[in-house]
Structure formats: structure tokens, C-alpha cells
From TrEMBL:
Residues 1-30 form the signal peptide. Gene3D superfamilies: SGNH hydrolase (3.40.50.1110). The keyword Metal-binding does not apply. It comes from Theobroma cacao. Belongs to the 'GDSL' lipolytic enzyme family. The keyword Signal applies. Keywords: Signal. InterPro entries: GDSL, GDSL_lipolytic_enzyme, SGNH_hydro_sf, SGNH_plant_lipase-like. Pfam families: Lipase_GDSL. One of its GO terms (molecular function) is hydrolase activity, acting on ester bonds. This is GDSL esterase/lipase At2g04570. It comes from the Eukaryota. Transmembrane segments: none annotated.
């Protein structure tokens, strides 16, 4: 009798937990009707496929662990963070790229990606590999607004646009593909001045978004960019460990970004904005991989795992790993789907708490 009573109590608690989870899930779905994405390759779901750039990933082995094993233009073996975030809010499990001709406004009504691999806050960064600059992503968004209003009507569209959760993730290319490679910006700015220059551009962009009706925004700062395999392989004097200088720049940039977020939350009426804390969890994964089920962190899965990405990441390279789940990084610059999911799972509870009511 005693055990039967305990079992009934346990069953009631379990059902209560399930019920509360379903209520939160339904609430999130009701409050966030779409996920809309701006940024670089960390969140690009395939816009670079249709522009004249060398920075593409719409070929194997990219996408080999995606639905159906198809490459999509995501710089990953599978899904990327916006996909997991969309799914967590009760929306579709993969966000389509705005420029992908396979999709229409009916697909984009619940989520769309304007991001372009290789871009940055700085227009000069987008010119390095001839990709979509941030101002052009904004122009595409304005075009999308018009299409959405024509599709569902002005009132419904404005509701979707104001209740949608917007994601921004960029900045790494500004440093690793621009500032530390080419002399122009370095001759104009110290690294701290360049951080401030980028954040000024970011502030202008966010103010424009707010003027267009955006009210829910999550901005991801820089990752531990000194730990990317591409940077580690060239850090010969540092025994191929992470480049501390780059990581310190990322941490300082992220602190300044948090200050900007706090300022804009005060300045912009109705704006609810967060800085997504991805750096720490990513760094923990890199430094203590076994705790997260990884075996390899210094090299990437694709090809030799040292410098290859985009077209250099080839399905015909005999060194490409067979199991990407053992690796933190997929190519020399981008994490595997497993890493993306762990980082996303770390961020999602905060996003649900902030934006699902």
C-alpha cells in the first residue's frame, strides 16, 4: 500500500512536470512567432550559395549529418545555433536562407536567415571575400517586411515582426579576416579603438532595427577565437595552444557589448535585448572536452583539421574524420553540430525565460 501511494505521488509529480513543460512550450510558441537572423557564418544557413564568393559550403562533406545528409550552405556537418533555438521555441527545426530559391515567403513567415559567411560589422570585412555586408542584410530585411505584409496582411505582419526573436552573431571576421591580416584598419585604430569602432557600427544597426519595429533581440559576442584550429596551428611558438591575445580581445569586446546592450535597453522604448553568453561554455568545451564527450579539440574533423574550410574541406580528403561527434570543430573555423547544440542548450533557457512571456 505504501509503495502504491509513493508510485501515485511520483506519477502525479511527473505529470505536473510534463504539464508545466507543455504550458511553457506553448507559451513560447505563442509569444515568439518567428526567428529572424543576422550575422556571419556562425549563423548563415545558405545565403552565400547564390552570391559570387569563394566562401561557400554547399557541397559535401558539409551537411553530411544534416537532414537527409544534404549540404545546405551551413558551415557545419549539421545544424547551427539558430536552428536549435527555433526548435526550442516550438518553431521549425531549420531556418531557411532568404536568398535560397527553394523557399518562399510562406516558409519565411516563421523564420528567416539574412546572415552571410565572412561578413562583419565593418563593411571592409565583407569586401575581403566578396560577401554580403551588414547594411545589405538590413536591406534584405526591409524587403522581407514588405513581402510579409503582402502575404499575411499589414496588421498580422506587424505583429509577427514585433513579437519575433531576432538573433545577431558576428564580429570574429572583423578581427581574424581583416584587422590582424590587412594593414588598413591596423594603421587607423589600436585594437581597443577598433573594438569601439565595431560596437559603434553595431549600435547604429540595432537602432535601425528598432526603428523598423524590432523589439526582441539576442546579440552573441565573440567566441574564444584564439582557440580556433586555424589560429592554433599557426601559434608555433605557443606550442599550438590557444592564442591568448585573441581570446583577451574577445573577452574585452564582449564586456563592452554587454555595456552597449544595457545602454540600448534604456535608450530604446520597448526594446528587450540580451547579450548571449556563449564564450564561457565554448571555452569550457575546448579546455575540458572529455566532460562534454569530445576527444579532439585542437584539430578539426574535416581534411587535416588544421587550416581547411570551404572548398579546401573536401569529401575526397582521406584525413576527414568518420565521426564528427568526437570533434569540437568541424572545419578550421567552425564548430561541429554537437558543439553547436551544447552551446545552444546553454543559451536556450535564458532566451525562453526572457522572451516567452
Amino acid at each position: 500500500m505504501k509503495y502504491a501511494s509513493l508510485e501515485m505521488s511520483y506519477t502525479r509529480v511527473t505529470w505536473l512536470f510534463v504539464s508545466l513543460s507543455l504550458i511553457l512550450f506553448a507559451s513560447a510558441r505563442a509569444q515568439v512567432p518567428a526567428i529572424i537572423v543576422f550575422g556571419d557564418s556562425s549563423v548563415d544557413s545558405g545565403n552565400n550559395n547564390v552570391i559570387p564568393t569563394l566562401l561557400k559550403s554547399n557541397f559535401k562533406p558539409y551537411g553530411r549529418d544534416f537532414y537527409g545528409g544534404h549540404p545546405t550552405g551551413r558551415f557545419c556537418n549539421g545544424r547551427i545555433p539558430p536552428d536549435f533555438i527555433s526548435e526550442a521555441f516550438g518553431l521549425k527545426p531549420a531556418i531557411p536562407a532568404y536568398l535560397d530559391p527553394a523557399y518562399t515567403i510562406s516558409d519565411f513567415a516563421t523564420g528567416v536567415c539574412f546572415a552571410s559567411a565572412g561578413t562583419g560589422y565593418d563593411n571592409a570585412t565583407s569586401k575581403v571575400l566578396n560577401v554580403i555586408p551588414l547594411w545589405k542584410e538590413l536591406e534584405y530585411y526591409k524587403e522581407y517586411q514588405q513581402k510579409l505584409r503582402a502575404y499575411v496582411g499589414k496588421k498580422k505582419a506587424n505583429q509577427i515582426l514585433s513579437e519575433a526573436l531576432y538573433l545577431m552573431s558576428l564580429g570574429t571576421n572583423d578581427f581574424l579576416e581583416n584587422y590582424y591580416i590587412f594593414p588598413t584598419r591596423k594603421s587607423q585604430f589600436s585594437v581597443r579603438q577598433y573594438q569601439d569602432f565595431l560596437l559603434g557600427l553595431g549600435e547604429n544597426f540595432i537602432r535601425e532595427l528598432h526603428g523598423l519595429g524590432v523589439r526582441k533581440l539576442s546579440v552573441t559576442g565573440l567566441p574564444p577565437m584564439g582557440c580556433l584550429p586555424l589560429e592554433r596551428v599557426t601559434n608555433i611558438l605557443g606550442q599550438n595552444d590557444c592564442v591568448d591575445e585573441y581570446n583577451n580581445v574577445a573577452l574585452e569586446f564582449n564586456r563592452k557589448l554587454e555595456g552597449l546592450v544595457a545602454k540600448l535597453n534604456k535608450d530604446l522604448p520597448g526594446m528587450r535585448m540580451v547579450s548571449a553568453p556563449a564564450y564561457d561554455i565554448f571555452y569550457q568545451i575546448i579546455k575540458r572536452p572529455s566532460l562534454f564527450g569530445f576527444e579532439v579539440t585542437g584539430l578539426a574533423c574535416c581534411s587535416t583539421g588544421t587550416f581547411e574550410m570551404s572548398y579546401l574541406c573536401s569529401q575526397y580528403n582521406p584525413f576527414t574524420c568518420s565521426d564528427a561527434n568526437k570533434y569540437v570543430f568541424w572545419d578550421a573555423f567552425h564548430p561541429t553540430e554537437k558543439t553547436n547544440k551544447i552551446i545552444s542548450d546553454h543559451l536556450i533557457p535564458g532566451l525562453l525565460a526572457k522572451f516567452s512571456h
